[in-house]
Amino acid sequence: MSTLFRKSILAVTERGPVQSMFTKFRAGRAVARRFVAGETLDDAVQTARTLNQVGALVSLDHLGEHVNDAASAKSAKEDYLQILDRVSAEGLDANISIKLTQLGMAFDVDRTKAALDELAERAAGYGTTVTVDMEESEWTGTTIDIYEAVQRSKGNLGIAVQAYLFRTAADLSRLIDLGGHIRLCKGAYAEPPELAFQTKGDVDASFEHLLGTLMTAEQVRPAIATHDDRLIEKTYGLAATRQAPFEFQMLYGIRETMQREIVAKGYPLRVYVPYGSQWYPYLTRRLAERPANLMFFARALVGR
Ligand code: FDA
After folding, report:
1. pTM (2 decimals)?
2. Residue 176: inside a domain, yes or no?
3. What is the rounded CA–CA span in Å between residue 187 and residue 171?
4. Is residue 227 lining ligand 1, measured as CB closer than 6 Å?
5. Which one of 137, 153, 171, 257 counts the least CB within 10 Å of its CB?
6. pLDDT at 2
7. Is 12 a residue whose pLDDT tops 80?
8. Model pLDDT for residues 17-38, shown as the tens digit of each residue
9. Positions marked active-site
10. Rounded to an integer, what distance in angstroms lies between the CA atom of residue 293 and that of residue 283?
11. What pLDDT digit, counting tens, does each position of 195-251 carry?
């Protein structure tokens, strides 16, 4: 989607009254349910179990970001430790995805590093991994620094990179040396022309270039995170000559028929399953990605 559309939608949805409209009315919450597994860990576990039963792997995201106080950061970390305990107890084939601003990156880098280390340690004990989501560009450098420090000592991490950022090709060579898994996505935020490609054509071309780099890097597990037919086809082509594992990744509630097709072809697919009460910012990004979703939202609100 063009950056202009994305910027306009994100600017509107950041306004308080618009947020209230979505979060207070049942229709708004019903719309969120298309993209979010529910508000509780039980909801997420149920969704993960169903996905595992049809052959998909899962990444659980307890929604939340931009935490500004130590108590909330600690509580986010404890929630994630609890998720890992539950993943193990339920025998789920799942890992976790985490935003570092949720662990306190905005005000305490050392605390964030220590929290990520603790999560990686707990995940390793259960034979699973932790993926670090990538947020707005102001956080890219710090996110990669923290990731590098913890990945060097623990080794069971992965990180998302965004094809729309000019810097990503350079970041990728640094990240590939660290092993782990690397999730390639287009990028979901509104970034300025000084830092990021602005048109779908340019972002897709960058994705394609980075895809080639990742799929020939045998020391990492590429996670190709897109719902785009053309890029999925390209990945099938590159997979034919790849010797090491890789996986596709898609978001809960998006292109479910395509998700089933990928599993039926025998490729690993991981579905990103967000849940929790802090779903509004996540929902606005899904809205800003696709004009057709606006109609979906409008219909739900008119019908309330
Ligand atoms: P594109 O937007 O071109 O869409 C291709 C097709 O997919 C559309 O034509 C439509 O059919 C379908 N589609 C895409 N988005 C849809 C939507 N919202 N609703 C309905 N249909 C939709 N971003 C980020 O900045 N940091 C991150 O850490 C992550 N993490 C992440 C994990 C996973 C598993 C995925 C799949 C994606 C992310 N993203 C992300 C989001 C990513 O950057 C991007 O915004 C979305 O995936 C949409 O881009 P596509 O590659 O799907 O292509």
Report:
1. 0.94
2. yes
3. 15
4. yes
5. 257
6. 65
7. no
8. 677 777 777 777 787 889 999 9
9. 133, 183
10. 10
11. 999 999 999 999 999 999 999 999 999 999 999 999 999 999 999 999 999 999 999
Length of the chain: 304
The yes-or-no verdict on residue 304 having pLDDT over 60 is: no
Instruction: Specify the number of domains making up the chain.
Output: 1
What is the domain-level CATH number for residue 86?
A: 3.20.20.220
189 lines ligand 1 (CB under 6 A): yes
How many Å lie between the centroid of ligand 1 and the Cα of residue 70?
A: 31
How far, in Å, CA of 98 to CA of 277, rounded?
15
Torsion 197-198-200-201 (CA) sign = negative
User: Which residue segment(s) compose the domain that 250 sits in?
Assistant: 37-278
Token pair belonging to 196: 């990021």
CA 157 to centroid of ligand 1, rounded, Å: 22
Look at residue 179 and give its three-state secondary structure.
Answer: coil
In a domain, 18, yes or no: no
Residue with token string 């780099």: 213
**Is 163:127 a contact under the CB 8 Å cutoff?**
no
